[in-house]
Amino acid sequence: MKYMIMMFGGIGETLRDRSPEWINDMQKLLMGLDAELRESGELVDSRKLMDPAASKTVRYLASKAVPTDGPFAEVKESLAGYWIVEATEERALEIAATVVDYIEFPMEVRQIMDQPPEL
Amino acid sequence: MRQSLEVLLRELAPQVLGTLARQYGDLDSCEDATQEALLAALTQWPVQGVPSQPRGWLLTVARRSLVDYWRRETARRRREERAGEPQPFEVPGADEQPADADDTLTLLFLCCRPTLTPAAQIALTLRAVGGLTTKEIAGAFFVSEATMAKRISRAKQSIGHSFERPKDLAAGLGAVLSVLYLIFNEGYTATSGPSLHRVDLSTEAIRITRLLHRLMPAEGEVAGLLALMLLTDARRPARTDSDGSLIPLEDQDRSLWDQVAIQEGIALLTETLGRFPVGQYQIQAAVAAVHDEAPTAAATDWRQILALYTTLEHVAPGPMVTLSRAVALANVHGPRAGLALLDTLNAEDNTTHRLDAVRAHLLELAGETDQARHHYLRAARTTASLPEQHYLHLRASRLRPRVDAQKPLRNRYGGGVIIKKDTNPPTEE
């Protein structure tokens, strides 16, 4: 099964208060995790998104699609990056926990719909 | 042996493909045929030895496979009782020796046609001229093989059956050089991701540019670009630390720089400057050479760099050039002078984060810590490069106010019902 592990925009805010050492270690943790998951074959894809403050939302306004400034959700709830892993739910939660233990900011784990129909 | 064979085949591949495409026009099937011929060579030559006319050998095998392919296609069409007539094709004549260099060039110009998107130009160039497999190119750009195969085949379709060198060679060359520079930069800046199985795009760009330089020795800008690549790539071993973090030029361990590449770049540049009209790549290469020749960061001849950027601003003006000139200006006349020049710049979409990063750096030098931090953080928010973002966050964090910096964040983002996993039962009391 595939799971998407999601990181949110609030992580950017927490970085502001951190020491250079803390930031450096976080970067090492994330890069190390990426490498480890790639090595083990569990990683399907992993991307970080640009800061949500710069994003645009296309909205339906006055019977027409219109691009507007800003993310759809609040910046701190907006998607900031994700890992897609081929793993059990338990393993996916464990991977997320490794990161959350360090960043102290929540991450979401959700299954991807890729199962064959059973009907 | 095997390695020298691969070098030879990669050299010959674009020549063979170029010749076939010029004669038959259909890039797609010509490419398949070339691949088959290369494969045959890889299996047969190590056993039977390299033929005396390796290119002719490859052409013959490729033509045979093309003819086979057309026969199959014709038969298939007949079977399907389609109304369309089979494509007429010229029977290959005696194996004449066309100017192979010309064919490689034409192929390169074709792949870099300005009507294609940069992504398509790059993919096609790496495939047809670089001889990389679709899988390798896909890996280099972190996309799936299927995606890359589509991109390449769409690019080929839009080229169609024409195999003519563009009329305006000068304009065409500009496009070719910028594609090669893009490929080089892609390899040079993309420090994320696993490098282990990744085809090295910088090395590939250098290889193709070297080939182009051999084919067009009288083009100063081709030599300039090759020199720029060599002089920049020479610093690569010192540019990242063991965990992939960026190390800025002034902090790099210069003993790690590749002196052979530096010498080659400088020699190329010396040979070129003054002989040809000066162009942007030559000037940028000259700047790179000044950095490479400085034994320490402090010993950098910033006056010369400032003069070079002033020239570059006349030859190829743009916000990025002004930014670089501001850095040089700050190093010669102090950070305030650099900042004053930055104030004349309007941030455009793709330069905002660089403008902020440079401004932050100069503000830091000027002792304006709070302002510097503000601009570092703004640059971090707008960059699209992960290693760069990391670097900018680090710079900002060094300037952060020291009050309650380490306040615990724990439980600030709590909530939710804790999942009790039966595989991990609560400890008994």
Strand-residue proportion of chain A: 25-35%
Mean pLDDT of chain A: 89
| Helix proportion of chain B | 55-70%
Given the C-alpha coordinates, what overall shape of chain A results? Answer: flat
> Quick one: CATH superfamily of chain A?
Dimeric alpha+beta barrel
**How is the biggest beta sheet of chain B arranged?**
none
What class, by secondary structure content of chain B?
A: mainly alpha
Which regions of chain A are unreliable across 5 or more consecutive residues at pLDDT < 50? none
Silhouette of chain B: globular
Total strands of chain B: 0
Which residues of chain B form runs of ≥5 with pLDDT under 50? Answer: 82-99, 191-197
What is the CATH T-level topology of chain A? Alpha-Beta Plaits
Descriptive account of the structure:
The complex is a heterodimer of chains A (119) and B (429). By secondary structure, chain A is of the alpha+beta class. Chain A is 35% helix and 32% strand. In chain A, helix 2 packs antiparallel against helix 3. Chain A is flat and about 50 Å long. The mean pLDDT of chain A is 89. Chain B has 429 residues and is mostly helical. Among the domains of chain B are: 1-81, no CATH class; 100-216, no CATH class; 313-400, Serine Threonine Protein Phosphatase 5, Tetratricopeptide repeat (Alpha Horseshoe). The longest helix of chain B has 26 residues, at 54-79. Chain B is globular and about 80 Å long. Mean pLDDT of chain B is 81; it is low at 82-99 and 191-197. The interface between A and B is medium-sized, with 28 and 30 residues.
